[in-house]
Write a structure and sequence with these properties.
The structure is a homodimer of 223-residue chains. The first copy, chain A, is of the alpha/beta class and 223 residues long. Chain A has a single domain, classed as HUPs (Rossmann fold, 3-Layer(aba) Sandwich), CATH 3.40.50.620. Chain A has helices spanning 12-23, 41-52, 97-112, 134-147, 149-154, 168-177, 202-214, and strands at residues 3-7, 27-34, 56-61, 116-118, 158-160. In chain A, strands 3-2-1-4-5 form a five-stranded parallel sheet, with helices on both faces. Mean pLDDT of chain A is 87; it is low at 82-87. Chain A binds chain B through residues 58, 60-64, 66-69, 89, 93-100, 102-104, 106-108, 110-111, 130-131, 133, 135-136, 139-140, 142-144, 146-149, 151-153, and chain B through 58, 60-64, 66-69, 89, 93-100, 102-104, 106-108, 110-111, 130-131, 133, 135-136, 139-140, 142-144, 146-149, 151-153.
Chain lengths: 223, 223
Amino acid sequence: MKNAVILLSGGLDSTTCLAYAKSYGFNCHALSFNYGQKSIAELNAAKKIAAYFDASHKIFDLDIQQFKHSALTDEDIAVPDFRENNSSIPATYVPARNTIFLSIALAYAEVLDAKDIFIGVSAVDYSGYPDCRPEYIAAFQAMATLATKMGVEEGGIRIHTPLIHLSKAETIQLGHKLGVDYAMTVTCYQATADGYACGKCDSCMLRKKGFAQAAVNDVTNYR
Amino acid sequence: MKNAVILLSGGLDSTTCLAYAKSYGFNCHALSFNYGQKSIAELNAAKKIAAYFDASHKIFDLDIQQFKHSALTDEDIAVPDFRENNSSIPATYVPARNTIFLSIALAYAEVLDAKDIFIGVSAVDYSGYPDCRPEYIAAFQAMATLATKMGVEEGGIRIHTPLIHLSKAETIQLGHKLGVDYAMTVTCYQATADGYACGKCDSCMLRKKGFAQAAVNDVTNYR
């Protein structure tokens, strides 16, 4: 079995991504980050989800708080309500977040001799984030191959993004087929520690809409 | 004055790099990493050097230790002695190190609205490291520009590598011209906390040879 590193936030997308990697027979090593996100519910969920999918799990501490810039990590900035026309880059943007996450995943991959890294980004529902686009992922993959002993000597690193062209609804349909129990996952930026969602923030609205469009029963725990 | 982020280990190369950025009029923000390197002497040196060059200084904690793989961070692996023909990738290699460092520098740069990042890598003396080569740096720069709001909206990130084509001797000559006091810098992998070098490891040997070839007085504190 080939090793793979899966970035696992404990949310809907990354959990679907883990189920996907598992379905392709990878020996999955889940990696989460404790970066000062307001909600600890995600990390609690990630632990349970990794165990459920028989994946190893590491939580990497990362003090991005010291580079305060975002509503996700800065207590002084409120989480914005849902805006229908989300054309500009959202206020919940964390600087260089996926780049940092993927870089640390790359180090972990090299230690595991894993040439495959999975990340659950989607360019469809979150087109405002520069680091969720296919051209960004392709550039990261090219860089990662040049960056590492393993990439240079053994012919390349693969960054897998199975959700990149899927809408939220399509992701839910995919996960549903793969047997994901979405009640385990937490998407809400303001979830309680035990995983109850606000039902009002950007992420909750996109998630609700996704279940409706997918015609899959929404098992999310709303408070 | 334009802001720039300078990766500063406290060694000879990164200190020369900081002096170089300073000479071009950048408002310098030095960034160091506490990643479990055996020698704390480097970080102690970095603090003094940043103050000397009137740069702000941040130390970012990074628990790469949990991905044990390298003689630099693993107590069970001895630091190798100097080998003259250093064609393969050295045992002191830390997985994805420059990629992680540059990614966090990128986040910091975005917060500072800095489009310039300086890193003191050289492809000449350390050609064994994949992440010290010009093609790697070019790939990182391309990725970084696509990764960030600032890169996308304001036209690119620049990764400056003023030492990339310089030998150790040429770096020392450059720093000497820029007024660097190399007694402040620590290169040795096994230096004492107050900065005394072993004089025997790979890094010490390259440094000694560099001063000799540069015909600059070696002011290093050897124990």
